[in-house]
Amino acid sequence: MKLLALLMMLPMLALAADVPAVGSQAPDFTLNSNEGKPVNLKKLQGKWIVLYFYPKDFTKGCTIEAHNFQEDLAQYKKKKVTILGVSVQDPSSHKSFCEKEHLNFKLLADVDRSVSTMYGSTMEHNGEVLSARNTFIIGPDGAIKKEYVKVDPAGHSKQLLADLTELQKKGK
């Protein structure tokens, strides 16, 4: 009976995973993008990366957050920053979302929730396990420079840009 209780707790334990610590190497992964092509984090080493997790395509908060990234995309490019969004929807959902919302950055499909779990970025909503709204700034050395947990999508992009300016000035 105790084994059954423990097995029933496994999904909750996965949801309770900690986010990787600032200063640690960002966990590597390969996920398919909205373009249907694999994106490998390690192959992007040498660049600044904003890795943001979001619950679901076509929802209000996720659309606001994506629009803000798109609105600020020129500033990210000027800072030589790559934006990668991650959620549990498949590449075709991400492709439709990008087309409908005119998004020009990559959204990655974490359909098995493994990357969201590695980054401590899962949550349960209406019985479904989704990516939680967390963001990580990853430096050119592959280390996590800053993390944001339970993000408010409205002003998030502006805060990231300000923090990136400071991090890049410090050469971190």
Question: Which features does this protein show?
Answer:
172 residues, alpha+beta, Glutaredoxin, 7-stranded mixed sheet, two-stranded antiparallel ribbon, disordered N terminus
Structure description:
By secondary structure, the protein is α+β, with helices and mostly antiparallel strands. The chain has one domain: Glutaredoxin, CATH 3.40.30. Helices cover 37% and strands 24% of the residues. The protein is built from 6 helices and 9 strands, in the order αβββααβαβαββββα. It has a 7-stranded mixed beta sheet. It has a two-stranded antiparallel ribbon with strand order 6-7. The longest helix is centred in the last third of the chain and has 15 residues. The N terminus is likely disordered.
Give a topology summary.
Elements: H1 2-15, E1 30-33, E2 38-40, E3 48-53, H2 60-71, H3 73-78, E4 81-87, H4 91-101, E5 106-109, H5 114-118, E6 122-125, E7 128-131, E8 135-138, E9 144-148, H6 156-170
Parallel strand pairs: 3-4, 4-5
Antiparallel strand pairs: 1-2, 1-5, 3-8, 6-7, 8-9
Over all CA atoms, what is the radius of gyration? Answer: 16 Å
Uncertain ranges: 1-16
How many strand segments?
A: 9
Which strand order do you get reading across the main beta sheet?
Answer: 2-1-5-4-3-8-9
CATH topology: Glutaredoxin
Query: What is the helix content?
Result: 25-40%
Structural class: alpha+beta
Quote the average pLDDT: 90
Number of domains: 1
Strand content: 15-25%
Order of helices and strands: HEEEHHEHEHEEEEH
The name of the CATH architecture is 3-Layer(aba) Sandwich
Tertiary shape:
globular
* Fourth-tier CATH superfamily name: Glutaredoxin
